[in-house]
Amino acid sequence: MDPKTTILKNIIRKKPILDRDPQFYNEIPLPSWIELSLIDACNRSCSFCPKVDESIAPNTYQKMESSLIEKLCKDLKAINFKGAFCLCGYGEPLLHKDHLKIINRLSDVGPVEIITNGDTLNEDRLLEIYNSKASRLLISLYDGEEQVIKFNKMIKKTNIPENFVILRDRWYSDKKDFGVKLTNRVGTINIGNQKEINLKQKCYYTSYQVLIDWNGDFFLCPQDWQRRISMGNVMQKTFFEIWNGTILNKYRKLHLKGERTISPCDKCNAAGNVYGEKHAKVWNDFYSSRK
């Protein structure tokens, strides 16, 4: 396996999902991707992840409740949301004891991908996830090539289609950026060959996606691990009200103009334009038509 090849393959795979023609509700472009952080805990501590520093990202073990999932699904059905979900966020999603129920409920609205370190998986649990309504399981491998052999044997033994599981090599050193698309996670990580912060770089995150934390808080993107500024809470407002709210629109307009001059974006070195070009264009058109 080659880390750059693995990352490129995943980008190509996700492009049709994230960069599809934008959907609208009341003339407002809707996101194509919702990332959910089911639980604020991870059983690993990787050097390129903020979880390595307990002062920044401690394991609190707070978890998303079923009432929040129900509220979110209700809100999304009300606007006829046609996008997809990703279970990852600030923790290991399979540590949430109700992850199967959550997968099945969300799948009534859209496809559900899970990103996991695979540590809790065995043959039975792998089959449970496959037999749920999950659309894809991505396993990040941090220990070495022996994990490829381990999980390929598991996949073959359970007779699960190979395209359901994606194995991602993540065991490399900082010389190969650990096999991840390395960023500074908004100023919380310095390890590896970090890019310089460019305060004039456009960012499309706020045009096509959202991240919802275990308690329903909206955050700008999965880069902001310190959860500096919440855009709103889905238990207090509807999804659409937050997505089209004053705070998120403020950041979105700045991002589309290439301005990263306010917190937390002034500390971020993520490209922010790997996906979302179509969404950025329709948002630009929307704002221009209302000047």
What does this structure look like?
The chain is 32% helix and 13% strand. The protein is of the alpha/beta class and 291 residues long. Strand 5, helix 4 (123-131) and strand 6 form a beta-alpha-beta unit.
**Terminal residue distance:** 50 Å
Q: Work out the radius of gyration.
A: 19 Å
Low-confidence stretches: none
Question: Class by helix and strand content?
Answer: alpha/beta
The quaternary state of the protein chains shown equals single chain
Biggest β-sheet: strands ordered side by side in the sheet? 7-6-5-4-3-8-9-10
The total of helices stands at 9
Give the topology string: H per helix, E per strand: HEEEHEHEHEHEHEEEHHH
Beta-strand content estimate: 5-15%
Helix percent reads 25-40%
What is the approximate shape? globular
Count of beta strands: 10
**Largest sheet composition:** 8 strands, mixed
What average pLDDT do the residues reach?
95
